[in-house]
């Protein structure tokens, strides 16, 4: 395995923000079914972290490339033009500000059509998965009236060259759009794009506190102009792969699938996704894929939780200094909220805003939470933890607001 330079990355069709992270090239022969992800896991054990790797020698998909772990935090921050130390504050300002605008361009599309899904190196990520899954795609949908465009991230099981199954959680806008089309007796047109600016993946994965067209919100968070096609379901010109089709009302078994919490979900009935066409960028850029429960997927989740919590508390006048959702807690079940004046009211506000988090810790300095917990007194708030309508134990808020007395040592 060798390191890719900026010039190498550009030659592969990867944008400049990949210069922000170490990028590797693997030319060892691997199969896209299970073996590729097993090799990535081996590399993580060898190096102590999960690298971002372009796999170039796929024995079952010759001539194709896969970009594994495509969205580490440095790449996402670089794509947004953000500094690691001030990104939460800047994102909050952008969220509250106006949108730089979205240009629906008539420029020639940068993609050409291929034969179908079989021409894409879609990966089977784990041995227990039902098959190959598209995991890094952003789905573009709209209701029948076409009032606004919604971006969402949904897993897609590939079962044939022009046939797939898509899982859409009933709590999502995409699911509600599909239901609206079904009520009119029609399948829902759906476009899925991959490889665009990572910021768009982050917007699609976020529970944004805003209404209207998601591309307008995306331009706001990017802090820059966004160019998309003028189709009814627009696609950003930066995308490398595009899948067009229709979500039907026919239900088929989808799964099992290894989810982000570290366990397989059982097979369930999900809508069939019939494919009209598949397009790829002329540069044959690598096909991005996310292993659920690993760095890329969890980073997207942690970052959206961090900036949404930060923005919510800031809007309430709380002087928040940092918010962290550690990856080792699956990026959403443990939250550290730092503020200059930690109070019971701040903790209660954070717990009310994020009901998914099982433990929320609020204090002045949580850079080393174990040490802070050991050396500070605290009070707690507890309440039932509800998941899918069922009570599963309790959730806890910890307020670390009682400093240890005495004179601290010098070193």
Distance between the termini: 43 Å
Low-pLDDT runs of 5+ residues are none
SS element count, helices:
10
Q: What is the overall silhouette?
A: globular
Written account of the structure:
The chain is globular, with a radius of gyration of 22 Å. The protein has helices at residues 6-11, 35-47, 73-80, 87-96, 173-183, 198-205, 214-222, 295-315, 344-353, 369-375, and strands at residues 2-3, 23-26, 52-55, 66-68, 102-105, 111-114, 132-134, 138-142, 149-152, 156-160, 163-166, 188-194, 226-229, 241-254, 257-258, 264-265, 268-281, 287-289, 320-324, 334-339, 359-363, 376-387, 390-403. The chain has 411 residues and is of the alpha+beta class. The strands form five sheets. Strands 6, 7, 8, 9, 10, 11, 12, 14 and 17 form a nine-stranded antiparallel sheet that branches.
How would the blueprint of this fold be written?
Layout: E1 2-3, H1 6-11, E2 23-26, H2 35-47, E3 52-55, E4 66-68, H3 73-80, H4 87-96, E5 102-105, E6 111-114, E7 132-134, E8 138-142, E9 149-152, E10 156-160, E11 163-166, H5 173-183, E12 188-194, H6 198-205, H7 214-222, E13 226-229, E14 241-254, E15 257-258, E16 264-265, E17 268-281, E18 287-289, H8 295-315, E19 320-324, E20 334-339, H9 344-353, E21 359-363, H10 369-375, E22 376-387, E23 390-403
Parallel strand pairs: 2-3, 4-18, 5-13, 20-21, 21-23
Antiparallel strand pairs: 1-2, 3-4, 6-17, 7-10, 8-9, 8-12, 10-11, 11-17, 12-14, 14-17, 15-16, 19-20, 22-23
């Amino acid at each position: 395995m060798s390191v890719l330079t900026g010039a190498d990355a550009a030659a592969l069709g990867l944008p400049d923000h990949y210069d922000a992270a170490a990028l590797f090239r693997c030319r060892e022969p691997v199969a896209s079914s299970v073996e590729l992800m097993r090799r990535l896991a081996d590399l993580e054990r060898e190096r102590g972290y999960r690298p971002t790797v372009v796999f170039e020698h796929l024995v079952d998909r010759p001539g194709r490339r896969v970009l594994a772990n495509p969205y580490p935090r440095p790449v996402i921050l670089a794509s947004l033009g953000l500094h690691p130390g001030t990104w939460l504050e800047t994102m909050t300002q952008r969220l509250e500000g106006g949108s730089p605008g979205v240009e629906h361009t008539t420029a020639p599309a940068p993609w050409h059509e291929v034969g179908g899904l079989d021409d894409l190196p879609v990966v089977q990520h784990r041995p227990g998965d039902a098959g190959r899954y598209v995991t890094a795609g952003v789905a573009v949908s709209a209701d029948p009236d076409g009032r606004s465009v919604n971006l969402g991230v949904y897993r897609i099981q590939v079962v044939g060259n022009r046939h797939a199954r898509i899982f859409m959680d009933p709590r999502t806008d995409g699911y509600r759009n599909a239901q609206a089309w079904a009520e009119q007796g029609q399948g829902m047109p759906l476009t899925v794009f991959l490889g665009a600016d990572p910021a768009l993946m982050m917007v699609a994965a976020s529970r944004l506190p805003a209404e209207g067209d998601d591309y307008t919100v995306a331009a706001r968070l990017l802090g820059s102009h966004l160019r998309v096609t003028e189709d009814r379901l627009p696609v950003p010109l930066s995308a490398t792969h595009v899948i067009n089709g229709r979500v039907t009302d026919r239900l088929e078994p989808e799964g099992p699938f290894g989810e982000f919490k570290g366990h397989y979900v059982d097979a369930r009935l999900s809508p069939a996704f019939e494919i009209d066409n598949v397009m790829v960028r002329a540069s044959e850029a690598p096909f991005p894929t996310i292993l659920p429960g690993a760095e890329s997927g969890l980073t997207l989740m942690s970052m959206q939780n961090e900036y949404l919590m930060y923005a919510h508390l800031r809007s309430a006048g709380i002087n928040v200094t940092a918010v962290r959702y550690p990856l080792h807690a699956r990026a959403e079940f443990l939250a550290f909220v730092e503020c200059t004046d930690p109070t019971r009211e701040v903790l209660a506000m954070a717990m009310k805003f994020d009901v998914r988090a099982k433990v929320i810790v609020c204090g002045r300095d949580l850079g080393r939470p174990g040490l802070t917990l050991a050396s500070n007194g605290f009070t707690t708030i507890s309440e039932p933890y509800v998941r899918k309508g069922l009570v599963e134990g309790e959730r806890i808020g910890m307020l670390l607001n009682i400093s240890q007395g005495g004179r601290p040592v010098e070193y």
